[in-house]
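haha ok so turns out i had the wrong file open the whole time. this is the CORRECT one, sorry everyone. sequence first:
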Amino acid sequence: MTVDPRTTAASAAPDGRNGSAGEFGSDLLVDLLGDLGIEYIAFNPGATFRGLHDSLAEKGTLPIVVCLHEEVSVAIAHGYAKATRRPMAVALHDVVGLQHAAMAIYNAWCDRVPILLLGSTGPMDATKRRPWIDWIHTANVQAQQVRDYVKWDDQPGSLAATPESLVRAMRLMKTEPQAPVYICTDTEHLEESAEPARRAFDLDLERFPAPAPTPPDPAALDQVARWLVEARRPVVIADLVGRSEAAFEALIELAELLALPVIDPEGEYWKNALNFPTRHPLNLSGDQHRLVADADVVLGLECRDLFGVLSQVEPEESAVHSITPVDAKVAHVSLSHLITRSWTADFSRLQPVDVHLASELEPTLSALLARCRELLAEGAGDAATREQRREQLVAASADLRRRWDAEAAAGREGEGISQAYLAHVIGAGLRGHSPVLANGHLGNWALRLWDLDHTDQYLGGQGGGGLGYGLGASIGAALAHREGERIVVDLQSDGDALFTPEALWTAAHQEVPLLIVMDNNRAYYNSVKHGRRIVEVRGRSFENSEIGTTIGPPFVDFAALARSFSVEAAGPIADPADLPAAVEKAIAWVAERRRPYLLDVITERPERA
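then structure:
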């Protein structure tokens, strides 16, 4: 067979080999990865896994995604997992490769995304190490670098111990809460003869299934169902629901059944999924504060920061004010306590709740929907109150959308293009193209304006707030959609792109259908906003607030940068009048040629944050 040159350069014989005299440990490892369902492996090449590299090229059965930086490799696997709900593998060169990858691993950890990270170390037997290089590239134990932000790690002591380690890793990372795992192989094991360990790799993988989903406690579920049915002012806070299409659909049914307003919280960094259809009449995400402040029942669904949603935090005053009524009943469905670590506080502050359902979202929402239907059939709740609430919520939602649509369509005059108008123009251009928004949301405007009603249409942010995520993750999502007609869209911030610009080479090499729209405000705008807040608090010069946060002069020519990596590009576009034609051309390029295109757009920085 001839292997796709975008993934490997090998042309393998029908039996998967090219005439090698014998098999090695790495050959067995490649076969096992395929049997475990791994579809791609991304890496920047490294000496410690040269045996694995050779086996991948020799066999040609597991496609390689070549990257120019380990952070890009992990980000690609991150985006691929969110687009397919299947893990990719990433090979990482010993100590230094793992250090390069650490930020991207942390992003995936915070985002609850499964990635099979395959490390490799120089010989653990010190008598077999080469002078200097094997010593600085061998650690005891290598996983110590990332142990606080992977779900599990292991360093098998022999080739025979490796298959069980990998099977355990796959089971653990795919069990909720999901997260990356790290397995460190030894260079010696990969390069030794396969024969002594062959039987250890002969596993019946069907006998090692992942555990069944965790169901809810029946008594607690019944209590929550009764609260919702009898509530007068309920509200649902949905987070990570969109990782399951079945949970997403069950939430829609539940909201429509009981006239529940659903808040899919808006955020700069921590919006992790599409948790409710953006244009649904019961989507009240833009009215979060009012609904939470008036609620008598709150249902949180795997909320990363339920405390933050139900409280008003004033950092400058070191004050926190609960905005939820003291007599409101609060229930939370979450398994996040099972993956809490002490090193980083990604779990946020504790929120007092009346019921904590320690169960997975899909079975919980399905059971909750069924129980609520039973209660309604028994005559529970007040139908008139429910229908009056539905009418009020639908009207409030429609008013929000009318105001948003009008503001976005108006555009802006002056320096730069507003994020709202940019989202409006891109959304209009994408109608009929079935887009996948892999990264970014233009200050939430894309989620306010675009009609997104399936979980695979928006993949969420980076999880850990680490820069360098967007390009790689979008390439991973586009890799998942390379076949077919869908267009993957990256609403890419300029500062984030400058951390991993080499990802553009991989986009071109892989020939992925990716539209990159550069949200180029020529600044690290999050730092600009913080600078403005601090000068306002301290009564200092507003003009000084952007010192050390702007990117230019000189200004980065992103179109020229993209073309240097063989990605077609245009821009910078600074005049709103030029934007519709430029967007139309960019979309047509990706749709027709199924290759990446970068459009550089100069966006405004509001005078006040």
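Confidence is low (pLDDT under 50) at residues 9-19.
again sry for the mixup
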